[in-house]
Every structure is written in C-alpha cells, then in structure tokens.
Here is the input.
Amino acid sequence: DTEVTQTPKHLVMGMTNKKSLKCEQHMGHRAMYWYKQKAKKPPELMFVYSYEKLSINESVPSRFSPECPNSSLLNLHLHALQPEDSALYLCASSQQQGETDTQYFGPGTRLTVL
Amino acid sequence: RKEVEQDPGPFNVPEGATVAFNCTYSNSASQSFFWYRQDCRKEPKLLMSVYSSGNEDGRFTAQLNRASQYISLLIRDSKLSDSATYLCVVRGSTLGRLYFGRGTQLTVWP
Here is the structure.
C-alpha cells in the first residue's frame, strides 16, 4: 500500500483566517514533505521532515508553519495568507533509504485564498 | 541554469504511436532519477525509476546516460489513457531533495 491521505480536498479561506492542512501515511516512512504546485508548473518543495525533525525549509514565508506531531502525521498551519498563495498543496512521504528512496504523493489540498 | 530541463511539448500523437521524451540534468552528483506522471488536477504518480542499464515496464522504456546527463522515456503503442503530463525528476546529493522538470504534456488522440 503506497497511500498518502490529505484533508481537506478543497479549502477556501480569507486572508485573516487560520486553517490547517493535514497529511497522513501508514507506510512506516521516515520522511515527509510539503510541496506547493501552481497551475502548469512543477511542484515546488516547501519543507522536509526527516525522523520527525525539520530538515529542509526552502525559505518559506512564516505564514506557513509546518508541524510533525509523529512519524505518520504532517500538518501545515496557515495564517494571514495572500491570494497568490492559492495553489495545490501536496504532501509526500518516503522511506528515506539511499538511492532507491521514492517519494509517494497524496492527492493534495486545493487551496483558494480570497 | 535549471537543475532539470525538459521539453514542455505539447506532444499530440495518434493512438498506437511511439513517442519519446527527453530530459537533461545539470548536477553530475545527482543520485537517482524518476519519471512521474501527473493527470490534470491530480497528484504526481511514480511511473518508473530510471537505472543506468535502462529499464522497461510494459510499453514504457526509460534510459539514463550519466556521461551526457540525459534521461529519456519511450512510450510504445500509445493509448488514450497515456494522455497526461510527464515529469522528469532527479534527486540531488541531499537526501530528500528532488528537482522537477517543468513537465511534458502528452495528448493521445483516437
């Protein structure tokens, strides 16, 4: 089973709202990732958690705040977003074991900021 | 210079055609190579990993040329269901860090 789940599927929020995106995997993967994808562009890496610790932050604005409560869960807390933050937010996970390591993506949350 | 360069297409081919996509990468220390497929408004899904010796999975053949830093994907006997965007993906020397090409859009018509 290579399933990564994400909730919600769709989210519409105002610029003053606070919301959270959730991601879950039960494959025993030790690395989890957040990506942002705009239309007709490839995914852009935002954050990487390795063994529940933040290992990469791609200079993401502080209005995006990641959290990894345990090895199966990854959250992305959103606050004071801008309309240009509207995008598909993808979560991924991987075993993080050498050259054969493969990332598996969840279905994404389509975010619209009004 | 981008880490991964890929012809965005679009490629429009009839059913049954053979189509090839190419990709180049800039970092010679890159560790692993993949092709992902992404349908419209869906997540990327792994199509195949790419190994130095080349590998085949049914109608799909992937090749890697490390000396030229070049990756290819060949699709034989195209099906309507092959219509999607194909992403060339390279892992750099930092574990977990993937570099994506901009994707090549394929449309297979009946």
User: Anything to note?
Assistant: The mean pLDDT of chain B is 92.
